Amino acid sequence: MFSEKEDIDYDEAFNFVRERIKFERIENDYDKLKVENDVFDRKTVMNIYYLMTHDYIDLIDFPIKIGKEANIFRAKKGKRYYALKIYRISTSTFNSMIKYMEGDYRFQSIKRNKLGLIYVWTQKEFRNLTECYNNDVIVPKPIIFKGNTLLMQYLGTSKTISPILKDYRGENLDEIYKQIKNNILNMVNKAHLVHGDLSEYNIVINKNKAYFIDVSQALPINHPLAIELLNKDIKNIVKFFNRKGLKIDENDIKNNIQWGIFK
After folding, report:
1. What's this model's pTM, rounded to 2 decimal places?
2. Catalytic one among 104, 214, 233, 249?
3. Pick the catalytic residue: 38, 41, 58, 197?
4. Is 104 among the catalytic positions?
5. 126-150: buried (b, 16+ CB within 10 Å) or exposed (e) per residue?
6. pLDDT tens digits for range 117-161
7. What's the structural domain count of the chain?
8. Helices (H), the chain
9. Is 197 one of the catalytic residues?
10. Domain membership of residue 126 as a residue range
11. Same structural domain for residues 22 and 127?
12. What is the distance in angstroms between the CA of the first residue and the CA of the last residue of the chain?
């Protein structure tokens, strides 16, 4: 079995992984070339190599989302699809991560170098997903994390990815709002976490279910910023649905929060 301490030939691992990256490479497509150069650095390649040689994935299919700090790709194992999130080692913002790490009792001993912080940040998102998933919050099911890579449930079909709430065109907005409300309540009251960056951009509608995504910055309820960020999350959601014609009051959510658990 591969471990970070083993002497793995990098060129061999690099070629192994590159042969299994299947999205089209077009010479004039700057974005795709930039994705490859920024994301598939040496340490990332070795982490992906681990996932591939330990039978978690067979190949990387195509980019789902290109972000400032991380990219998400669709990966495949047999006939099953997964989402593979890769935090960029070269461009991730150190200071923005520190803000959410300090005060989180779960991660008191963290390395202050950039690589160590990114690895802990990836672990943090995996743990947040796991705690949400185990407490009835609708989130992508977490599978495994390795270094700066996180493997989780894929939201979409074989042909298309599921839309974020901002781009959703369904008519069942009342039901979607109720699901999001329940997600917030379960995340706070049961998982004891606050999302911290919730909006129509961080919710995916998949098979008529509202999935919370991008939970890396989620905080425990005893964090100094927890109440402030929870109020902001609620305000963002209520504002979005009111723009869509629903008459929602923030107290519809706030009155069901167990505020006594915040200490």
Report:
1. 0.90
2. 214
3. 197
4. no
5. bbbbebbbebebbbbebbebbbbbb
6. 899 999 999 999 999 999 999 999 999 999 999 999 999 999 999
7. 2
8. 10-18, 30-39, 42-53, 94-101, 114-133, 173-189, 226-243, 251-254
9. yes
10. 17-153
11. yes
12. 44
